[in-house]
Design a protein that fits this description.
By secondary structure, this protein is mainly α. Among the domains are: about 55 residues; about 40 residues. About 70% of the residues lie in helices and about 0% in strands. It is flat, with a radius of gyration of 46 Å. The protein starts with 5 loop residues before the first helix and ends in an 11-residue tail after the last helix. It is a single-pass membrane protein.
Length: about 160
């Protein structure tokens, strides 16, 4: 870029004052300022567009890199799963060949191992673990009531009046 110092700008201004005259010089200076501003905006727009295109290219490269990495991971996982499945099938075939009978092929697998006992979780027992006094205090309903019975239960006692202050 051309480097203008203060002395060069003063020389150009003096020449322009002599050539153009004092009447036309402000209008010409304003026009030149507008043109320089437009040129700077145009140059900055071009720079921004170039930067955007460079960033877009970098993002496309990153995207292809990620896609390649994901594809490689997927292939390696598929390969390992296939190998593990083949090994399991081989082991399963070896195990079932020794225990197979002609009448029931799953006879050895039908009974659970000895000593195993299913943990019986009694949800009724858990539900009854809350003390009755806590249920009454919190208003937990222990049995269903009809609407009329509920109204009668919560109806104010006859003869009891509330004093208003």
């Amino acid at each position: 870029m051309i480097d203008f110092g203060f002395d060069k700008i003063a020389l150009i201004g003096a020449v322009a004052l002599v050539v153009l005259g004092p009447e036309r010089l402000p209008r010409v200076a304003r026009t030149v300022g507008h043109l320089l501003g437009k040129a700077q905006r145009y140059v900055s727009d071009v720079k921004a567009e170039v930067n955007r295109s460079i960033e877009l290219e970098e993002l496309k490269k990153m995207k292809t890199g990620f896609e390649d990495a994901a594809r490689d991971v997927q292939q390696s996982v598929s390969k390992e799963m296939h190998e593990a499945n083949a090994e399991f099938d081989k082991t399963w075939a070896d195990v079932t060949d020794g225990t197979r009978s002609d009448t029931d092929p799953y006879q050895a697998l039908a009974e659970p191992p000895p000593g195993y006992k299913h943990p019986k979780k009694n949800w009724r027992l858990k539900r009854g673990a809350t003390p009755q006094w806590y249920k009454q205090r919190q208003g937990v309903r222990t049995h269903a009531q009809s609407g009329a019975a509920r109204v009668a239960r919560f109806r104010p006692v006859a003869g009891f009046t509330r004093k208003s202050s």
